[in-house]
């Protein structure tokens, strides 16, 4: 229908996609064969269920499947192919700019060298720019359920790769792993010139305190998810005033939370917060950029107008970390 066409044609930017979350059961199967490694059980199950999807119902069960499936990623070529698979789909959906999360510790902790991961991703970034015209940069996430020392060592590993890594983030299991645990790592990252963001996942216990720490103690440039900031008018005022962006993910929310949080997302947007719509782990939640925007736009009671859809996408370009020169070209 005309709404679907409108959204498909809208120029888009994606600021919250995990590259490892772009691993489809099909690609996992190809890589397992190519590398002669056993197909993880999670992928086997995903390929045999009628819906051909992975099985999980909350953040912890999602993460268990996510980490087990990525063991098929071994060589630089695998990381390259994973990123190209996603970037090709993004290009087909008129995504012009991507800032892609990746989780190096999920690979280095099982013996894959850091430069293997980043060189594979980097060659895809360059190829996408050259062949598809998609501008792309990488955001390196620390796994918050691992130690601050491991995060610091990973930051040191990244220093030779500043040409393609624009910033750092924080993801994985949030329970008991507050932003404060990584204060020193994020301070060093700032001094090294990296932009900084953190997941404050919707519906995680204590998340509003985590949002406060991320904003006030760490001084992040963006918040990933962070939707439950609506509970605290003072923090909402702070992100408005400092023009700190929120990267929200409706379909992801609908899978791992109680709800897709459309009401909260639109409330924040209409209050002038820099809210954006993103796809998080599209291969797992089975929704790319267009599907996520459509999920929000289709919800009748939210009464989202086309002008607001344009505004949401404009936010994404505005809060992106591309240089202001290229950002002006997009806007
Ligand atoms: N939340 C936390 N950690 C993650 C996610 C997520 O949605 N995706 C990949 N790592
Ligand atoms: Zn995420």
From TrEMBL:
The record marks 225 as: Important for catalytic activity. Zn(2+) binds at residues 16, 18, 199, 280. Residues 11-331 form the Adenosine deaminase domain. It catalyses: adenine + H2O + H(+) = hypoxanthine + NH4(+). It comes from the Eukaryota. Keywords: Cytoplasm, Hydrolase, Metal-binding, Nucleotide metabolism, Nucleus, Zinc. GO terms for cellular component: cytosol; nucleus. Substrate binds at residue 281. Its main location: cytoplasm. Signal peptide: none annotated. It is found in: Cytoplasm; Nucleus. Its cofactor is Zn(2+). Pfam families: A_deaminase (PF00962). Its EC number is 3.5.4.2. Transmembrane segments: none annotated. The keyword Hydrolase applies. Belongs to the metallo-dependent hydrolases superfamily. Adenosine and AMP deaminases family. Adenine deaminase type 2 subfamily. Catalyzes the hydrolytic deamination of adenine to hypoxanthine. Plays an important role in the purine salvage pathway and in nitrogen catabolism. This is Adenine deaminase. It comes from Lithohypha guttulata.
């Amino acid at each position: 229908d005309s709404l679907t066409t409108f959204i498909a044609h809208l120029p888009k930017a994606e600021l919250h996609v995990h590259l490892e979350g772009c691993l489809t059961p099909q690609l996992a199967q190809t890589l397992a064969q190519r590398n002669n490694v056993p197909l993880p059980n999670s992928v086997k199950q995903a390929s045999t269920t009628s819906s051909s999807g992975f099985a999980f119902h909350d953040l912890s069960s999602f993460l268990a499947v996510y980490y087990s499936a990525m063991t098929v990623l071994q060589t630089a070529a695998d990381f390259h192919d994973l990123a190209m698979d996603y970037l090709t789909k993004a290009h087909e959906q008129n995504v012009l700019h991507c800032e892609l999360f990746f989780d190096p510790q999920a690979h280095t902790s099982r013996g894959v060298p850091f430069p293997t991961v980043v060189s594979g991703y980097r060659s895809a970034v360059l190829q996408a720019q050259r062949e598809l015209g998609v501008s792309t940069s990488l955001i390196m996430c620390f796994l918050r359920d691992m130690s601050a020392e491991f995060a610091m060592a990973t930051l040191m590993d990244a220093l030779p790769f500043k040409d393609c890594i624009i910033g750092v983030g924080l993801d994985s299991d949030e329970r008991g792993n507050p932003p404060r645990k990584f204060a020193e790592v994020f301070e060093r990252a700032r001094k090294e010139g990296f932009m900084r963001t953190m997941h404050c996942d919707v519906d995680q216990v204590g998340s509003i305190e985590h949002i406060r720490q991320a904003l006030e103690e760490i001084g992040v440039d963006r918040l990933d998810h962070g939707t439950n900031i609506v509970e605290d008018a003072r923090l909402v005022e702070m992100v408005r005033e400092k023009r700190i962006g929120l990267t929200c993910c409706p379909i992801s929310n609908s899978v791992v939370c109680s709800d897709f949080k459309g009401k909260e997302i639109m409330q924040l947007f209409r209050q002038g917060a820099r809210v954006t719509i993103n796809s998080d782990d599209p291969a797992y939640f089975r929704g790319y950029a267009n599907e996520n925007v459509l999920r929000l736009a289709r919800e009748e009671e939210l009464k989202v107008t086309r002008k607001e859809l344009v505004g949401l996408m404009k936010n994404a370009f505005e809060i992106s970390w591309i240089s202001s020169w290229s950002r002006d070209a997009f806007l």
